[in-house]
From TrEMBL:
This is Transposase. InterPro entries: Homeodomain-like_sf (IPR009057), RNaseH-like_sf (IPR012337), RNaseH_sf (IPR036397), Tc1-like_DDE_dom (IPR038717), Transpos_IS630-like (IPR047655). Residues 181-311 form the Tc1-like transposase DDE domain. One of its GO terms (molecular function) is nucleic acid binding.
Length: 362
């Protein structure tokens, strides 16, 4: 059998040689680097069998690279990426998988209320929809915008005057009346004496530990708070109870603090807020009670301040007396008031600002 004639690359200019050498050193594509080495070796007049042994490839591969470079130059070094293996799951099947994942398994005849990847994969296999791995299933769900999330609850708003009440409160937030100031009031508590979960910076794997307790014999207390939107400061009282008597006392203290201004007090529908003696007193002392829609405490601006108080003043604590706990709350509120700024821009980009917004109605 006659020996195949030797094949060599065409004459390479010095500039092309430098370019080939740079590719062999810096290219991040293994295919391009390997082909450049083959061309350089051939330019050095190394025979095809020697190059094949050097690169651990077939002689046919070396000859093909040389011929391609002679015909197309450096373009022949670029890999020819194919489309890869055809997808096992088409577009319609992907949409069907996402639809099944969003359904309750019981509605489809399975004896459980939520899917896991393994259970969903089994359902797809048993119904001859798709035979795929759990990882492929996870990727399909992610691509279709279906993610693993906690189920949340919501409370229906059944107030027939929801929109009017909400718009009234938003208008007070956006355009404080010139003849007075807007005050948000609410109760915070009950304030138990108990270890409270929290977060903090600790050595790795050595978090702070708190005792566990099931016996609380010192009763509870309640914080009645008022947020002044003009300054952002919180005014409060801590009392043993939160009846109409305590609420009226808070209003009287606010009235004494700003004697020459009308007070617009935003409050929820807690029954002590609507007692006859409270309404009579507010009517005769330039205090207007503006009630939230039912089940809409999130419209009260003081709720976010209470959340911060719970996180920073009570989180991670274990107070042994009400006096100790009251002092911690007082210290936090003093710090808060020293750093307070006027409250502006309530829920600017929220969906509640849309003209057609309606709550979920039972």
């Amino acid at each position: 059998m006659a020996r195949k004639p030797e094949v060599f690359v065409r004459a390479v200019s010095p500039e092309e040689g430098r370019r080939l050498q740079k590719i062999t050193k810096t290219s991040k594509q293994p295919v391009r680097m390997r082909r450049a080495i083959v061309v350089m070796a051939s330019a050095q007049r190394q025979p095809v069998p020697a190059i094949a042994r050097l690169m651990q490839v077939s002689e046919a591969y070396v000859r093909q690279v040389i011929h391609d470079f002679n015909e197309r130059g450096f373009e022949a070094l670029d890999p020819k990426w194919s489309g890869g293996r055809p997808k096992k799951v088409d577009r319609a099947t992907r949409e069907r998988i996402a639809c099944i994942a969003r359904c309750c398994p019981r509605d489809l005849g399975w004896p459980f209320s939520t899917w896991s990847l393994s259970k969903l994969r089994e359902a797809l296999q048993n119904n001859a929809i798709a035979d795929i791995s759990r990882e492929t299933l996870r990727q399909i769900l992610k691509a279709e915008g279906v993610s693993w999330q906690a189920v949340k609850t919501w409370k229906a708003g059944n107030d027939p005057d929801f929109t009017a009440k909400m718009n009234r409160i938003l208008d007070l937030y956006d355009h404080p009346p010139a003849d007075g100031r807007v005050i948000c009031v609410d109760e915070f508590g009950p304030l138990n004496l108990q270890p409270r979960a929290g977060r903090g910076w600790f050595p790795q794997h050595r978090p702070k530990r708190l005792r566990a307790t099931y016996h609380r014999t010192q009763g509870v207390r309640h914080l009645l708070g008022a947020l002044d939107l003009a300054t952002g400061k919180i005014h409060y009282r801590i009392r043993d109870r939160k009846r109409g008597t305590e609420f009226l006392a808070l209003l009287k203290s606010l009235r004494a603090r700003w004697p020459g201004e009308k007070l617009y007090v935003i409050a929820d529908n807690f029954s002590p807020h609507k007692r006859a003696e409270v309404r009579d007193w507010t009517a005769s002392h330039a205090v207007e009670l503006v009630f939230l829609p039912t089940y809409s405490s999130w419209l009260n601006w003081i709720e976010s301040e209470f959340a911060a108080l719970r996180y920073f003043a009570l989180g991670g604590t274990d107070h042994r007396s009400h006096g100790e706990q009251d002092a911690a709350i007082a210290a936090y509120i003093r710090w808060h008031n020293q750093h307070a700024t006027p409250k502006r821009d309530f829920a600017v980009n929220s969906k509640i600002r849309l003209p057609d917004y309606l709550p979920k109605v039972a």
